[in-house]
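Assemble and predict.
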Amino acid sequence: MSEPAVIWLEDCGGDCGPLVGGKALGLGALLREGLRVPAGFAVTTRAYRDHVDANRLAEDIGRLLRECDDSPAAQQRAAQEIRQLFEHSRVSAQLEDELLGAHERLCAGGVRGPRGDAGVAGSPWPVAVRSSATAEDLGEASFAGQQETYLWILGGEQVVRHVVRCWGSLFTPQAIAYRAHRNIAADDLAMGVIVQRMVPAEAAGVMLTIDPVTGDRSQIAIEGSFGLGAAVVGGEVTPDRFCVDKVVLEVRSRAIGAKTVAYRFDPAVQGTVREPVPPAQQHEPCVSDEEVLELARLGKRVERALGRPQDLEWAIGPGESGPREVFLLQARPETVWSQKQTTPLVPPNTSVMDRILHTLGAPGSAPPPRGI
Amino acid sequence: MATTTGPSTGRFPSPFEIETPPGAEGWRDMYVPYLLFSEENREYEDNAFWIWDSMHLPEVQLPFETHANEGWIYAVSAVNSRIFAVPPSFGIAQRILNGYQFIALSTVTDPKEIEARAAVYAERAGYYYQHWDELFERWKVKAEKLITDMAALEIPERLPDLETEQFFYAHPGANSGQFLLKAYATLLQMDLTAWTYHFEMLNIGYAAYLNFFMFCRQAFPGITDQTLAHMLSGTETMYLRPDGELRKLARLAIDLGVADRVAAATDPNRTIAVLRADPKGREWVEALDAVRQPWFNLSNGNGLYHHHQSWNDDLRVPFKSMAGYIARLQRGESIDRPVKEINERKERITAEYRALLQSDEDRRAFDQNLGLAKTVATFIEDHAFIIHDWYHSVEWNKVREFGKFLVGVRFLDEVDDLFYLNRWEVPQALFEAVSAWASVTPSRGEHGYWKRFVTKRKGIVEALRSWTPPPALGPAPAESNDPIMLMLYGLTTEHIQTWLGAGDGRANELHGVAASAGRVTGTARVVRSVNELSQVQEGEILVCPLTEPSWSPIFATIKGAVSDIGGIMSHSAIISREYGLPAVVGTGSGTTTIKTGDTITVDGTSGTVTIHR
């Protein structure tokens, strides 16, 4: 049986990593845990390869890359030309049908306006088109965010166009430089693309299910700001910062940042705009304590399901049961503390009495404490 | 390594520069000489670091009351220094200044000596840890016998004009006056015994607690004290029994149809008398009587002051609580403690922390540390009820019998005037009385000698009450990490630094121990004694000096709590957590800074109380 061009996110699991890429795999895991992730599907690397083959792009791409030297200007130029190749390529009728069909199913669940209002009857649900890189290509997270993400795409035809455009973003100048440096051949490259319902976020941000400062696994750090997550991820605002105790699920600290800008959907331009946050609102928390706790509960579930501390992206926006539902947009393993060699808190074979004597300040009778 | 070492980082006032408050001149004469700062001992006293023991003794001590504190400080010291050889700690020195108690640690500084003591500690504490349950069972037997003996101590209200025939033919070779003197000596001896029992297993128990706490803090820097305490707290401890008995009695009152009369009682003793008159009522009163010993010995204080009273002394307190339970039952509400949920939560939390540990070795250490901490928890939770509440409720009333005797011989006007004489003056008065009785001659005492002391001292005590002690005296240590001070007083370097920096005028914000998580804003109700508890309105925030177990029913009606005194393991903290109320304890000055009617915010997560003015 030939490999499919489209796989629904909830089916992204098991051995389909090379087909859909890491991000889709992570979202699939969340969905199978019953967690709220915006519905969507992955466009597979098979679709990419078929498309490249049908349009005979490999040859041209190979040529352009071979002709390109190490200079940033040349890489810039090559990137532009390759992306032009994609822009002018033709999507096969079969793939187009599959994408349009999947998109139609994706939008079938109802239509809601960008601010959670009833929306316009019959208008398509806005979607995000995001890359989902395969591990063979760019490795662990090092190029996260390098490929483009297209927000607020409306209508099936636009979706098809942006999938192709997203494929083209496999050849950004940075990616070209990186591969040249690592001697990665372009022939084997492929990319997964995720098409996912857009969450018109009222607030969004990131969450780490471990204390990033102390490595304390009993704490969760949450950062968030108004609007889409771009403001937090891009470091454009000082986000609100919450620390939550993972075990007892209590908010331990909250620092409310100055959130001067927010990315939101603007119906006038049919896309996202960066808009100032009114001064009176800038120092208001972007989420309630209850929402912080709900996020923490979700983070805890994901960590348990995936077996290690997680680095998550989240958004709060209108969903099926209310105007402020919590969605998870991305899950990836936390890498800093998780990869550290953990030394035991106590050296092997100490007795309780050894430890008590140490606690009582009798040095020499027990080992010194481990520095954190 | 211990509290009094390290270069000084600042200085609190010298004990020798503290002035006597106006009107309190002569206060030193009230107290026994060895409790005073003195010229003979100035070199030591001026260089030691003293903290005001506001946690145990927030009020002026009356002269007689020091006997209890001499007893416990002596006992805690001997256990550390001479019995278990706690490696870095000898004992505690105590001094009275302007009526308030200051304490200083005596620490071991020689590393060789610490090492030698560690070997002894390992051997001796190890023996106790190993035989804990058995030793605790034996402890309970002897402690309860002590209380029974104290209750049985006979103190005559007056001495006979002539010894009875019965007395004579028992040929004791003695006389009643002698027995009176002996009873007094016995009482003081029993007090000391109570305290040595109290500390017999306490410090080593705390060491096991601390060991578990420090391990968890190392593994989980963000873990809070309240979570740690929660993991160890029992749901069936003695302190929860009195309140549990009230719930049962409230239910029984409804079943027997006497609930309205119980709930309406303003004079409980009269209500009891009336209830005895009919069968249903009698059945209820018998059930009440069956639990008054020992459970109604619950004190409204820590037992260190003579005015700390138990439910048995003032039945209005338990009756008011029962009225509350009856009302809730009549409204169809449940009054059951969610024991199952509390236990399940505790199990879940413990299992989650364990699962977050990263190695088998760490999990093994966690299990061992927790196991020992849980073993000792039985004693730590129950010893206080037995000694502080039960024993001391009996003892203070027994002391009052000597007061009655001295009133009988016209040495004193009021029974409680005895507390204005110190522990060595009382036997003087007693001896004077029995010798006058024997010689059948007039005495100075009956001509106002002791009454003049009492009158003068009442004025002095009043003047001392208006004085507020500094939190500490002498050179501040660079570091404070003595395990005993940490466990008993929560004393840390940060605390000392805060004290040094105090007085920078942020009176609208108080800091204390974050005892029970959550944040609530509401109207403050300042309650200084148990008698004022009835003023508390539903939904108010309780502000009090201490919250003691007998106050626990009030927690069902308030929405937050602030106390002057107390730590993470104090009863108020435990009860607040159980009721899920935000609480900040140990603020030092909540009752003096906050006024009834103030709007305040209690942040039990950060330990802050904000007064909105």
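The CA atoms of residues 20 and 217 of chain A lie 31 Å apart.
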